[in-house]
Amino acid sequence: ITGVLPGQTVQIIVQAVNGNLQGVASEPIQFTVPLPIREEATTKEPATAMAASSGNGHGSRDGAKRAAAGG
């Protein structure tokens, strides 16, 4: 359906036409155009996974402190 924005509700009736013959119209249905899915919301890691994976890149989040204390 063109010209209808996401979130809007439309009423649809279908009727077959063949030349100058016409079928009986269907019962009307109401349809709400779905909102688009935000792609970034489906690809981001959860906050807990992001916090666990951030660090110094050496497998330990406090690796810099250990190096300073140990050496």
In short:
The protein has 71 residues and is α+β, with helices and mostly antiparallel strands. The protein is built from 3 helices and 4 strands, in the order E-E-E-E-H-H-H. It has helices spanning 39-43, 47-53, 63-70, and strands spanning 9-12, 17-18, 21-22, 29-32.
Walk me through this protein's architecture:
- The protein has 71 residues and is α+β, with helices and mostly antiparallel strands.
- The chain contains 3 helices and 4 strands.
- It has helices at 39-43, 47-53, 63-70, and strands spanning 9-12, 17-18, 21-22, 29-32.
- A hairpin with a 2-residue loop joins strand 2 (17-18) and strand 3 (21-22).
- The termini are far apart.
Question: What kind of sheet is the major sheet?
Answer: 2 strands, antiparallel
Q: What are the low-pLDDT stretches, counting only 5+ consecutive residues below 50?
A: none
Helix residue percentage: 25-40%
Given the C-alpha coordinates, what overall shape results? elongated
What's the N-to-C terminus distance? 69 Å
The total count of helices amounts to 3
Spatial strand sequence of the major β-sheet: 1-4
Class by SSE composition: alpha+beta
Radius of gyration: 29 Å
| Elements, N to C (H/E) | EEEEHHH
The share of residues in extended strands comes to 15-25%
| Average pLDDT for all residues | 74
How many E strands? 4
